Amino acid sequence: MPVSKIATQPVSKQLPAEPPKQLRAMDRLETAPASSLTKTMQASGDIRVDLVQSIKQQIAAGTYETETRLAQAVDRLFEELNR
Hints:
Blueprint: H1 32-44, H2 49-61, H3 67-81
């Protein structure tokens, strides 16, 4: 069985002087369909502006999300999934 020579110096690799440029990931949001739907609903009168305004104020105050509302939302989600 032949004996292999043992390397005493590690293998080195030349690296470029500058690291490769990293491309930045960019998030993109397209709202055209949602915007179109909102405009259609506003035109038809299906949006209760007073209710929307009230909910926005509750969300801003931190009082909208309650245990009861969360439980109702979860129950409704399960009902939808079980249909």
